[in-house]
Amino acid sequence: MSYKILILEDNTLLLQTLEDFLGGHDYICTLVSSGKEALKQCYENKYDLYLLDVKVPDLSGFDFLKELRASGDRTPAIFVTSLSDQESLTKGFMLGGDDYIKKPFDLSELLLRIKALLARAKGIVDDWLEIDDAYKLNLARKRLFHNQEELDINLKDFELLYLLVKERGKVVTKEMIHERLWSSSEEINEGSIRVYINNLKKIFGKDSILNIRGIGYRFEK
Fold this sequence. Notes:
This protein is of the alpha/beta class. It is 41% helix and 21% strand.
C-alpha cells in the first residue's frame, strides 16, 4: 500500500526533485507551493505525512500545521527548512511538528526520516471502528474499508461518517456537524452537508441515515 505525502514547498525545482525521488520509492505526492492551497488540499484529501517548508506564501508552514492540529489532525509532519535557530526549531515542535531536516539536505536522509516516522505512526494505524460485519473505519489513516477493499471517499465524508457512527442511534445535530467538519477559518456551507449525506447514502443505502427535519441526522445502519 502506497503512502500519500503532501509536500508544501515554494521552490519549484526542489518540489519537482522531491516528487521524482519519492515517487521512485512508491510514495504518492501532492505538490503545493502556498500555505492556503495546502490547507485546501488537506480539507479535501487524506494524507499519511506532511513535508512542510516554513517560508511559503499566504500561510507559513508553522501556521498551516497550527491550523491542522487545532482541528484534530494528527498526521505526522516533517519541517524541511533553512531555519536553524533554536527558537524556530522549538516553535516547530511546540506546534506539533514530529521532525525537521535542514536545507540543504541529502535525499537519502530525508527518506530515512520519512520511513522512521511512518513506522512510528504504524502503532496507531490499526485503530479501527467497526460499522458492521462488512464496513469499518481506520481512524488513524481516515479510511473507509468494505471488507478488505479501501473505498474512495473524501475527508469530509469520512469525518461526517465517523460522527454518525460514533453517535449511532442518537441525533447528530447540525451544530455538531459544523464543529466536526469545519475549522474556525472555513466558511460553513449548509448545502455541502446534504451532498455529504447523499454520498454516504450511496454507500450504505438511502434508509441508512434518517433526516430529523430542522435538527440533524441519525445513523440507522
